[in-house]
Structures are given as structure tokens and as C-alpha cells.
Amino acid sequence: MPSGQHFAGVHQEFQQLERILQPIGKRPYATSYATMPQPLKVLLVDDEIVRAAMVEEALANEGHEVICRLQAPTSLNEMVARHQPDVVIIDMESPDRDTLDSMSLLNRENPRPVVFFADQHDPETMQAALKSGVSAYVVDGLVPGRVKAVMEVAIARFESFQSMRRELDQARTQLAERKRIERAKGLLMKHQDCDEPQAYRMLRKLAMDRGQRIGDVANNVIDILEQLEKGR
Which residues, renumbered to this chain, carry the PTM 4-aspartylphosphate (predicted)? Predict the structure, then answer.
């Protein structure tokens, strides 16, 4: 049975090398749209001035506001970051590669419900748009009277997708944390000549002493003991 000296040893190593460890950050989750504000702030992309004005009027009649209007989606992510709309509406003949890239960038960095009105029906293009983050893809162009209903569907689909994304991220984080804890236990068992329950108790005590999550402590222990192994 290992004595308290074994635990004291790893505790001392932890203190000596802790200063070289980088702080552990937390991955931000995508914005939740569980409670959408009213009225909605809309960013509209439409290269036809007259039609865009009709859509803006239709949205205003429903109590919503177009806070930014673009003729092309090339600066879409930048404009969303600047104006922080609740919904993005895009109306164009068909999304080209630059448009798909712009929507993919938006979906990664500033996800929002995106409604795309297309004049042409192309199943492959529609699938590409949906993969790029479009919440609702409507063929036959933009009709002002349909905007409200389609926008509501897009928001509902966006909320559902964001919820699934958060659950998936959480599951991945938990799995990665379990793997790190197992790795830290293995290193402690090797360096401290102890069994698995004792190694886990060491991790728990270190976590309690520092007010940290056990996964964060496991990361630090791994860094410390792996550096010790490299130095030998």
C-alpha cells in the first residue's frame, strides 16, 4: 500500500510545475434562441431594391425591423457581427460558391436563423445551402406575404439545431474529460505505485484543494507527469 508520502510527492510536483501550465479555457456555446426578442431585428440581403423595400414594409407591418440591408452576402459575417440581427433573410436567384462560403463562415462564427429565398430549384444547391447553415430554403423567390410564416419556421428549426449542437458538444466534452481522467489515473498509478481507486482519490483531493473540476486537475497532472517523463 502506498503511504501518504506518495501523495505528498505528486502534490509537491503539482505545485512546482503548476506555474508553467496554461489556463484551461471553456469553449463558448452558440447563442441560444430559446426566447426570441420581439420585435425581431432582421438583416436583409436582396439585390432588387423595389422587392427589398416591399419585404421591409411587410416586416414592419408585423412589428419587425430591418436594421441592415445588403445587396450581396460577401460581407455577411462581418455585418452580422456588427449589427447583431436576430434573423438573416437572403433573396437571390441561387446561392453561388461565394454565398455558400459566406453562410458557412456565419454559421461557424455568428450562427443565426437564415432564411434563403431562391428563384431556381436545384436539389444539389439546396442541400449545399442547408449544410452551410440555412434554416429554411424556399424556392420560387421571395413573396412578402410569406416572409413571416417562413421566418417562424426558420427560427424553430434553428433553435432545434442549436439545442442538438449543444447536447453534442456537451457529450463530446464529457467523453474527452473521462479520457483525460483515465490517462491521469494511469500516470499516477505508474509514478506513485498505487492502484486505480487510490489514484482517483488523489485527483479528487487535488480538485477539492484547488476548487477545480476534476477534469481540469487531470489535465494539469497529465502535463506535469508527462513533462517529468520527458526530462528523464
Answer: 91
Gap between the Cα atoms of 17 and 144, Å rounded: 63
CA distance 137 to 142: 11
User: ∠132-133-138 over CA atoms, to 5°?
Assistant: 95
Full 3-state SS string of 53-91: HHHHHHHHHCCCEEEEEECCHHHHHHHHHHHCCCEEEEE
Backbone angles phi, psi at 81, to 5 degrees: -60, -35
Cα 176 to Cα 76: distance, rounded to the nearest angstrom: 34
101/149 Cα distance (integer angstroms): 27
pLDDT digits (tens, 9 = 90+) for 3-57: 444 444 444 444 443 433 333 333 333 444 444 457 889 999 998 888 888 888 8
Q: Is 9 exposed, middle or buried (0-12, 13-18, 19+ CB in 10 A)?
A: middle
Taken in order of first residue, the domains within the chain and their CATH numbers are 41-142 (3.40.50.2300)
Alpha helices in 132-195 (DSSP H): 147-192
Q: CB neighbours (10 Å) of residue 29? A: 11
